[in-house]
Amino acid sequence: MSGPVRVVHYLNQFFGGIGGEDHAYAPVQMQEGPVGPGRALQAALGDDATIVSTIVGGDNYLTEEMESAISAASAYLDQVKPDVVIAGPAFDAGRYGLACAEICRLAAQKGIVAVTGMHPENAGVLTYRKDILAVSTGTDATEMAQIMGSMSRLALKSLRGEELGPASVEGYIPHAIRRQVMHEKFGYERAVDMLLARLAGTPHQSEMLITGYDDITPASPLESLEGATIGLVSSGGLVPRGNQDRLVGSKAETFFRYDIGQTASLSVDDWESVHGGFGTLILNTKDPNYAMPLSTVRYLEDKGIIGGVYPQFFSTTGNGTAVSAARRMGGEIAAELKANNVDGVLLVAT
Questions:
Q1: Would you place residue 165 in the very low, low, confident or very high pLDDT band (cuts 50, 70, 90)?
Q2: Measuring CA to CA, which residue among 63, 80, 2 is closest to residue 28?
Q3: Could you write out the DSSP letters of every residue in 288-333?
């Protein structure tokens, strides 16, 4: 290959410098050269490659107007003819991760090397793990320069046709594909060595990488809704307008309870969503009941389909919330509802 490698970088509307959630429906567009964090990517690529163009698209546009978004991105790639496409990194932003994955899948279909970066539990990974080469990231954008270095290294290595080593060595998210490898010791010897290291409290690493999730047994369904008291819980960041309690837009560690005993429906005059992980335009200008459908539940109550509604609802923000914090908050909410003889809960997630 003569000359530097030609790279196209994909960014969402925020990192692409268009704007925040109010521009999440920005259509796909192309800008010349590196943009925003693309400058850190260019520094990581060095003289080996040049970012010739940056494709920018709104998170909502990419995920909700998929056909037109991918069509536009495809036309740009055909026009620029890059050797490599690098998307993101998206960290733990779900819509951004899905968009990065879609752009990488598009590039791969065209025979273009594609690399992205995101948290292992990002929706992009959970949906397209086997289809994408993604550098594993945390949740903090302060890692940007380091992740850019890892993505550029994997991209250039893949372009040169070099075989990638194990995910634990190369730093990418496993594809759930097993390969045969040769070890100096037999399996039983390695197992004994690991056991001895564990007993001694010295560093060791299992060869079986299994993600541990809680095994939750669901509660038995209600025998009848008639006469049942229903509690309402929302992770949509719904608060009284003005957010006097200062509920955060992401990484929440607390929840708040709000009185709805005499409220038939939520109005934009009195309620708003402060959620930082999705576009809140509809909630905050038209109908906050999308995040906590009080009007619908009141209808069921009026018709006698349910017995009643617990007079307070619980609100937090699910965006980027740690599992430990979510588990604690859920336990506290459940304990209060149980103590007040609530029969069932409608949990509105976002």
A1: confident
A2: 63
A3: GGGTS-HHHHHHHHHTTSSSEEEEEEEE-B-TT--HHHHHHHHHHH
Domains identified in the chain, total number = 2
What's the token pair of residue 328? 């604690």
- Structure confidence at residue 129 (pLDDT): 86
Question: In this structure, are 35 and 149 located in the same domain?
Answer: yes
In angstroms, how far is CA 171 from the centroid of its own chain?
19
Domain termination residue (choose one: 170, 192, 212)? 170
For residues 37 and 11, the answer to whether their CB atoms sit within 8 Å is yes
What is the spatial distance between Cα 231 and Cα 247, in angstroms, rounded to a whole number?
20
The predicted-structure confidence for 179-196, as pLDDT tens digits, reads as follows 677 788 888 899 999 999
Provide the domain limits for residue 49. Answer: 5-170
Q: Give φ, ψ of 309 to 5 degrees.
A: -120, 135
Pair 48, 156: CB distance under 8 Å: yes
SS3 253: coil
Which pair of tokens denotes residue 121? Answer: 């539990």
| Whole-angstrom distance, CA of residue 350 vs CA of residue 347 | 10
Tokens found for residue 130 = 């086997």
Cβ count near 92 (within 10 Å): 21
Is 146 in the same domain as 242? no
Helices (H) and strands (E) in the chain, counts: 11, 12
Q: Which helix (H) or strand (E) holds 57?
A: strand 49-57
Give domain status of residue 189, yes or no. Answer: no
Tokens of 252: 């929440």
Which tokens hold the place of 102? 């879609």
Query: Does residue 188 sit within a domain?
Result: no
- Express each pLDDT in 61-93 by its tens digit: 988 899 999 999 999 999 999 999 999 899 988
Strands 229-234 and 344-348: parallel
DSSP string, 103-142: HHHHHHHTT-EEEEEE-TTSHHHHHHGGG--EEE--S-GG
Q: Give the C-alpha distances (Å, rounded to integers) separating 141 from 43, 53, 93, 116, 119.
A: 17, 22, 11, 14, 11
Please answer whether residues 344 and 221 qualify as being in contact, where contact means their C-beta atoms are separated by less than 8 angstroms.
Answer: no
